[in-house]
Design a protein that fits this description.
single chain, 153 residues, five-stranded antiparallel β-sheet, elongated
Length: 153
């Protein structure tokens, strides 16, 4: 029966998708680690706390929301020139206050390219591992069910 091949084909497509996503996030992880390794550490001052989507969300906060996640905007200087950077994600329980000093990592060749120390250090590698483990699990299931008539050869 040809219709039994569909689950196996779908499983292979899902496995290839998961492997592709793990490669994409692996490249992002590699770039982030390279940036951190080559970056210059500079002390910056928090000049504002702005509403931003919380970690793991893409929904931007709306005006007037009771619980708004806040991200610090940090001002720092390189070679006498002032730059500002706003963290990519906010936190509901923001621990920093305006006037606090934070470590900013910036590209020595392009000081406007920056991030806060510790920012993005954990999420992307966890996503990478999740995709890779999921791909291995799907591949294992496909391998174990190859002779059971499910999806037949």
């Amino acid at each position: 029966m040809k219709w039994l091949r569909f689950p196996r084909t779908l499983g292979i497509i899902v496995c290839l998708y998961l492997l592709g996503m793990s490669v994409v996030f692996g490249v992002l992880t590699s770039r982030n680690y390279r940036f951190i390794h080559d970056a210059r550490q500079i002390s910056g001052t928090v000049i504002a706390l702005v509403p931003r989507a919380p970690l793991g969300s893409t929904r931007e906060p709306r005006a007037g929301e009771r619980r708004t996640s806040l991200a610090p905007t940090v001002q720092y200087q390189v070679s006498g020139k002032t730059y500002t950077y706003t963290a990519a994600q906010g936190h509901f329980r923001q621990t920093v206050k305006i006037g606090d000093h934070l470590t900013v990592l910036c590209d020595p060749k392009d000081p406007a390219d920056a991030q806060l120390k510790g920012e993005g250090r954990l999420l992307v590698p966890v996503i990478t591992a999740g995709f890779a483990i999921s791909a291995l699990l799907v591949a294992f299931i496909l391998f174990r069910t190859r002779n059971l008539g499910i999806g037949g050869s």
